[in-house]
Amino acid sequence: MQRLLFIFCLIFSPVLFALPQQALVPGGIALLQLPQYKPDTKVYFRGKRVAVFAYKKSWIAMAGIGLRTRPGDYEFSVHQHNGITFNSKVHIKTKHYPEQHLIIKNKHKVNPDKADMIRIIAEAKRKKYAKHLYSDNLPTVNFIWPVHGPISSIFGLRRFFNGQERRPHNGLDIAAKEGTAVRATASGRVIDAGNFFFSGNMIFIDHGEGIISLYAHLSKINVKPGDVVKQGEIIGKVGHTGRATGPHLHFAVIANQNLIDPILMLPIKSTASVK
User: Cα–Cα distance between 172 and 152 in angstroms, integer?
Assistant: First the structure.
């Protein structure tokens, strides 16, 4: 097998429609243009297969960068049908996320008891399955906002509940009134839908090749696993189920098993604003 160094990273300028925006930081996105792409070409980043989508007259590989990724050089690995492998280097920079301190009245949502933990462990398996799913469906990346409203919590915040540090915030919180319609950010298939201990009523949607969207703390779920939904279709309603301090939508995006900043997948022009 021939091994060549191929350095060609594509950085998009800001646009008013929803193409992923490159951000070479933990929780960000790396993009790679594929000028010689063939349908059976496979692209990997840090050993995990990534999504490839058409853009104008070219093809783009998109890799999610995990929040725990350390600064340094990493590589895309492009495997062509003829056995040739190309590598493309990207440099990931440091990014420091601010802290957020929240008070949760239900102490079980901060320090679960043994019975709670049995449920949490079972739910973790469902979450892992959804997060790791890779379907061969051509990915959809032209996202829309699932709900409009002020952004109450940004992605990546170091979170403290009742003074205790927990995992960083892995999504985007959009404040809205209880019962506000939540729409599918893009067309896809429902992987899982149900009530979870921390996330409340939650939905996972597969958009193809490892790109998955997540909607949590819903007051109502309108879909079930296996349903095929269209972009803009109402899939549920805003609520504050699970570990939540008030009505809002927790919206998250997964790419090649990594939770990434949803802002990078959403249109720049929107009525949403930072609260």
Answer: 8
CATH of domain 3-92: 2.60.40.1590
State mean pLDDT over 16-34. 86
CB atoms within 10 A of CB 67: 21
Secondary-structure class of domain 99-274 per CATH = mainly beta
The first and second tokens of residue 25, run together, are 């930081």
**Range 104-140 burial, b when 16+ CB lie within 10 A, else e:** eeeeebbeeeeeeeeeeeebeeebeebbebbbeeebb
Q: What is the mean pLDDT of the chain?
A: 85
Tell me, what amino acid is at 222? N
**What are all long-range contacts of 20-23, with beta carbons under 8 Å and residues at least 24 apart?**
20/62, 20/141, 20/264, 20/265, 21/264, 21/265, 22/264, 23/65, 23/261, 23/264
Total length of the chain: 275
Query: Which residue type occupies 101?
Result: H
The token pair at 137 is 């469906």
Residue 97 predicted with pLDDT over 90: no
3-92 and 99-274 have identical folds = no
CA atoms 21, 96, 108, 178: torsion sign: negative
Residue 43: its H or E element: strand 42-45
pLDDT, tens digit, 9 for 90 and up, residues 161-185: 555 555 677 899 999 999 999 999 9
DSSP one-letter string for 8-38: -B--PPP-SS-----B-STT-EEEEE-TT--
At 99, the pLDDT band (50, 70, 90 cuts) reads: low
Would you kindly state where each structural domain of the chain is located, as residue ranges?
3-92, 99-274
pLDDT digits 0-9 by tens, 39-82 = 889 999 999 999 999 888 889 999 999 998 999 999 999 998 88
